[in-house]
Design a protein that fits this description.
Blueprint (H helix, E strand, L loop, with lengths): L2 E7 H5 L4 E3 L10 H12 L6 E8 L6 E5 L1 H20 L3 H11 E3 L5 E3 L1 E3 L2 H12 L2 H4 L10 H17 L5 H13 L2 E7 L2 H11 L8 H10 L7 H17 L7 H9 L18 H10 L4 H27 L16 H15 L7 H12 L7 H20 L6 H16 L3 H18 L3 H10 L9 H15 L12 E4 L22 E4 L1 H4 L6 H8 L8 H9 L4 H18 L6
Parallel strand pairs: 2-4, 2-7, 3-8
Antiparallel strand pairs: 1-8, 3-4, 5-6, 9-10
Length: about 575
């Protein structure tokens, strides 16, 4: 292993030539506090600031790939661009030219290149249009985005610099001091010609786990096996994975958690046990699969493509939840997409996801991967049957507020493994039977489900319950023979007895916030309803279902009290027990 490791200043690092940020690197992520800390570090001392280590890979005379140090190099470029623009503002063109020597260079063919280049076109565009262009051209650049983190970092540095310049008797001298403090900051610069060994060095330097995530370690493991001729497509796929994960809104869905669900959604031939692969064992499990392959390059590339598919499916699930069960999010994942192919499926998926539990993700990933597969795909009818069982079990479990256990995680993991290994309809049906058998042993009882619904409340301080309550009321509305509501849109919930002057902590007011006092109405109607129940009745009559007997009678009499609400509360629970029956073999 040939290692070149020296202490260098940032100025020396930049003048090495060109540094390339590969596509698999996460996008620029420094926020205001990171910028302020960096500023303090370089301006509050007379000694050069030490920035830690940087790891690169590449031949001495070639552009070097940044394995570790992308955020610090990008930040350095941003600060230098701020200084360049301030020198320009004060009319010092000589120092503008001096700064540019660290931002760009002329290669041996006479071409001008940036010192830092992103292979990812989106990242390259953000850096160029928001930072590298001077002020005059940046303002009219098509990709200029003041909301980008690169732009925000620039603005923060500029504010800090201008604050320092306010009381400076010699502004150019003050800018020189900032420039020199940045360029003279030091790093231990480590370059390894062989990319695989560079990843090994990177991991060794971070073996205390302060900065490397499990996904980082797996990325290093995979890209160390991929031949240089295959790097481009794999880097693009990895970049897309990171972008999709950044856009997810699932609570607690970190990149490591995604990897945990994705890996546990698959059948692993080398592992006869279908037990959950815990976070601490993920890298070893993935390494075992790569090392057992006759073609480790192909195995690594296939695994990246598999993770890309899982990220797309997770994005589809995320959009299904946020769109109230719309089938549209799956349009881009299925070349044969039709609305009727996904409506019933997405209705069930929404029912699982709205419960707010992450436990079913391995099985949902496995099921949707099987449905989207061109080979050995799960039949639509079989998928709906499976999702019916999953939704009923998970919704009851979540409403009953039963906690996550190793048993329920094992059920989902084993079912996901069976689905992943299935190649025929009988295989998928066997997987359903296995899931139902396991779920029936631990399913929430009717009493637990009933008590869980009774605990639900919709108030200013308990808005999270609103999604579950709305789903219960919507599913009940769908079960009626007819409806006056457009159930394809997200409806509003109206407190039949208004909240005005009612404290939710007062026991006698508790019924007002419960499901018996809530009804679905179109949003535009909800916003214009009168405050008192008698005054609402004429409008409510246009939307309330005739099968909602307690409420219909109250509208006719224009009287609504806790007794009627509690009676309706009981009727809703009775209907919910029919719609979400206990899992049975």
């Amino acid at each position: 292993m040939q290692i070149d490791a020296h202490k260098r200043t940032l100025g020396q690092v930049l003048q090495q030539g060109q540094h390339i940020v590969p596509r698999y690197q996460r996008r620029y992520a420094w926020e205001s506090q990171n910028i302020k800390d960096f500023w303090s570090d370089i301006t509050d001392t007379t000694e050069p600031h030490f920035l830690g280590s940087m790891v690169t890979s590449g031949a001495t005379s070639a552009p070097r790939e940044v394995i570790d140090g992308q955020q610090r190099l990008t930040t350095t470029i941003i600060t230098l661009c701020v200084l360049r623009d301030l020198y320009q503002e004060f009319g010092n063109t000589a120092r503008v030219t001096g700064i540019k020597e660290y931002l760009e260079y002329i290669d041996r063919d006479g071409h001008r290149n940036h010192r830092l280049k992103n292979r990812d076109a989106s990242a390259a565009g953000r850096l160029n249009d928001n930072i590298l262009l001077d002020r005059e051209h940046r303002a009219v650049a098509p990709g200029y985005d003041p909301g980008a983190l690169e732009s925000q970092a620039y603005d923060t540095f500029e504010r800090l610099a201008r604050d320092l310049l306010q009381n400076a008797p010699d502004k150019i001298q003050q800018l020189d001091e900032i420039r020199d403090a940045i360029l003279e900051s030091e790093v231990v610069y480590i370059n390894v010609e062989d990319r695989k060994n560079a990843f090994t060095i990177f991991e060794t330097l971070n073996d205390r786990g302060k900065s490397l995530t499990v996904l980082d370690l797996v990325k290093n493991l995979l890209f160390a096996e991929i031949a240089s001729s295959d790097e481009d497509s794999s880097e693009r796929a990895w970049s897309q994975i990171l972008e999709m994960l950044d856009d997810l809104t699932f609570e607690g869905m970190t990149p490591d958690v995604f990897l945990y669900y994705a890996w546990n959604s698959k059948h692993h031939a080398r592992n006869s046990s279908a037990d959950t692969v815990e976070q601490a064992r993920l890298r070893r499990s993935i390494a075992d699969q790569i090392e057992s392959s006759n073609d480790r390059d192909a195995a690594a590339r296939d695994l990246i493509i598999g993770l890309q598919t899982d990220a797309k499916i997770l994005a589809g699930l995320n959009q299904t939840l946020s769109s109230n069960g719309s089938p549209d999010p799956w349009r881009g994942l299925d070349t044969t997409w039709r609305r009727d192919k996904y409506e019933d499926i997405c209705d069930r998926l929404y029912g699982v996801l709205v419960a707010g539990s992450s436990q079913p993700f391995p099985l949902l990933l496995s099921l949707m991967r099987a449905y989207l597969s061109e080979h050995n795909a799960i039949p639509r009818k079989t998928l709906i049957e499976f999702l019916d069982a999953v939704e009923s079990f998970q919704f009851r479990w979540s409403i009953a507020q039963k906690s996550s256990t190793s048993t329920i995680r094992r059920i989902y993991r084993q079912s996901a493994s069976l689905v992943s290994a299935s190649t025929s309809k009988p295989d998928f049906e066997s997987a359903i039977k296995s899931f139902v058998t396991g779920a029936s042993k631990i399913d929430a009882s009717d009493a637990q489900f009933r008590d869980g619904i009774s605990r639900l409340a919709y108030s200013r301080t308990r808005s999270k319950d609103s999604f579950k309550i709305r789903h219960i009321l919507t599913r009940i509305e769908k079960s009626y023979q007819e409806t006056k509501l457009d159930l394809s849109r997200q409806l509003s919930m109206e407190h039949l007895q208004g909240l005005e002057g009612r404290s939710e902590v007062t026991p006698r007011n508790s019924w007002i916030f419960k499901i018996g006092n809530l009804a679905l109405v179109p949003p535009e109607i909800n916003s214009n309803l009168p405050k008192t129940f008698p005054d609402k009745c004429d409008e409510l009559r246009n939307w309330i279902n005739g099968e909602d007997k307690q409420l219909v009678e109250a509208i006719d009499s224009k009287v609504w009290k806790s007794e009627q609400a509690n009676e309706r509360h009981g009727a809703i629970i009775h209907r919910a027990l029919e719609l979400w029956p206990r899992t049975q073999i």
